[in-house]
């Protein structure tokens, strides 16, 4: 009988320790604990067609830079750059930010003289600042060509 009481006392002690280690119902975890971040570059490329019987090459009409977080951010700051793939000439360079949001989107509308016959290298870096003040940085880049036919 004494060994049964001893075992149940040990089991009760373990249960109390397990409850003490578990978070209380209704308590919140930090907002940035499981936040995920994503960045993407999406060129809008119109496929080649035929004009008066002559083929035309694909054209890059615009480039969209998109940053998103799975939770509300204090701020998102995005720096987006588009360069000529071969000469490294600068086509587009801007920085923009948003506050109290979980998304930031920028779009570069390609001027007609740069829509075909060029290679493009787009890069972006987004800095996500959580409401608690921690900062996460995500970057990406993409290259493509819209040849002149």
What is the secondary structure topology, with strand pairs?
Blueprint (H helix, E strand, L loop, with lengths): L1 H20 L15 E10 L3 E2 L2 E2 L3 E26 L5 E20 L8 E12 L5 E12 L3
Antiparallel strand pairs: 1-4, 2-3, 4-5, 4-6, 6-7
Note the gap between the termini.
Answer: 93 Å
The helix content is 10-25%
Query: What proportion of the residues form beta strands (DSSP E)?
Result: over 45%
Q: Which radius of gyration do the C-alpha atoms yield?
A: 27 Å
Helix/strand class: mainly beta
Sketch the topology as an H/E string, one letter per element: HEEEEEEE
* Mean pLDDT value: 81
Q: What is the count of DSSP helices, taking H or I runs of 4+ residues?
A: 1
- Major sheet, described briefly? 5 strands, antiparallel
Account of the 3D structure:
- By secondary structure, the protein is mainly β.
- The chain has one helix at 2-21; strands at residues 37-46, 50-51, 54-55, 59-84, 90-109, 118-129, 135-146.
- The longest helix is centred in the first third of the chain and has 20 residues, at 2-21.
- The protein starts with a helix and ends with a strand.
- The model is unreliable at 10-32 (pLDDT under 50).
